[in-house]
UniProtKB/TrEMBL annotation:
Superkingdom field: Bacteria
Similarity-based family: Belongs to the binding-protein-dependent transport system permease family. HisMQ subfamily.
Assigned keywords, A-Z: Amino-acid transport, Cell membrane, Membrane, Transmembrane, Transmembrane helix, Transport
Pfam families assigned: BPD_transp_1
Chain ranges of the ABC transmembrane type-1 domain: 15-204
Protein name: Amino acid ABC transporter permease
Localization in the cell: Cell membrane
Membrane topology: Multi-pass membrane protein
Organism listed in the record: Streptomyces albiaxialis
């Protein structure tokens, strides 16, 4: 308990850092994932090709490699002096978006094709059909895997601590150097991650119950 009480400000800073990184990356991942899922089911071949290449490339690239590219290639080639937090958000968000897009696409595929055809027969565009008819129904199916991917995102955010970002995992280096028991440090860090992941899980369970009532 002394480890926590003696370093409460440091733990709070790390917790807020992990929370900020997770929330911002999750928002980016959801937006990109929804967009890429739309590309994947688009009637426009170049968009489908782009979506397929995006998902295939990112899903088969180790997250650590994406971080290395983001932190050591992007600043030198494209954006010198870019903030490390932003680089971590982009790496995490893009990586997770490839999984989220597949979850959304799978949900879209569960919606009967006849509903999309009926929407087109009354003059609705592809975008209108997707937004008003297909996605509201696909969301019910996509919620469980989305919850799992966002929980995985929370845990993956620990990699950012090795790239000059202040988060829960990063503070263990400071505390270890001060001579605290590494086992106790990791226990408190684990509790911090559990608080965030349980909150995400609870939020999605609530959403699933509301979707069930809506049926």
């Amino acid at each position: 308990m002394d480890v926590l009480l003696d370093n409460l400000d440091l733990f709070r800073e790390g917790f807020v850092g992990t929370l900020s990184l997770t929330a911002t990356s999750a928002l980016l991942a959801l937006v990109l994932g929804l967009l890429i899922a739309g590309f994947r089911v688009s009637p426009v071949p170049p968009l489908r090709l782009f979506g397929t290449v995006y998902v295939t490339l990112l899903r088969n690239t180790p997250l650590t490699l994406l971080f290395l590219v983001a932190f050591f290639v992007v600043p030198q080639v494209l954006f010198p002096g870019i903030d490390s937090f932003l680089l971590a958000v982009v790496a995490l968000g893009m990586y997770t978006s490839s999984y989220i897009s597949e979850a959304i696409r799978s949900g879209i595929n569960t919606v009967p094709l006849g509903q999309a055809e009926a929407a087109r027969s009354i003059g609705m565009t592809f975008t209108q059909t997707l937004r008003m008819i297909v996605l509201p129904q696909a969301t019910r199916t996509a919620l469980p895997p989305l919850s799992s991917f966002l929980i995985a995102l929370t845990k993956n955010s620990a990699i950012a601590g090795a790239f000059n970002n202040v988060d829960l995992f990063n503070i263990q280096k400071t505390l270890s150097n001060e001579g605290y028991d590494i086992l106790v440090i990791f226990i408190w860090i684990t509790i911090g991650y559990l608080i965030i992941t349980f909150a995400i899980s609870g939020l999605f369970r609530l959403l699933e119950r509301r979707m069930e009532v809506a049926r």
